[in-house]
Write a structure and sequence with these properties.
This protein is mainly β. The chain has one domain: SH3 type barrels, CATH 2.30.30. It contains no helices and five strands. Strands 4-3-2-1-5 form a five-stranded antiparallel β-sheet, with no helix packed on it. A hairpin with a 5-residue loop joins strand 1 and strand 2. The N and C termini lie far apart (about 40 Å).
């Protein structure tokens, strides 16, 4: 599961989840649990919506958010 921060044309960016990385050859991106970054519902969607299909032409770029496994970073130090 990947958490994405999606920047769309003429709109506020939002957070969503995907099971696998989006395929650039596809005409859309399937996004689960779309929400604002603070966890609030998106105003552009109905309350009961849990999955959206967003066409690639609406997306400026996507940021892949780190997962718990990726956040563990090795930091060398000296005693």
């Amino acid at each position: 599961m990947y958490n994405l921060y999606i920047h769309i044309n003429d709109g506020e960016p939002f957070v969503g989840e995907v099971d696998e990385m989006p395929d650039p050859k596809s005409s859309y991106v399937l996004i689960n649990n779309p929400r604002q970054r603070d966890g609030k519902d998106l105003r552009m969607l109905l309350d009961e919506v849990t999955t959206i299909l967003l066409p690639w032409w609406r997306i400026n770029y996507i940021e892949v958010m780190p997962t718990g496994e990726e956040e563990e970073v090795f930091t060398p130090f000296r005693d």
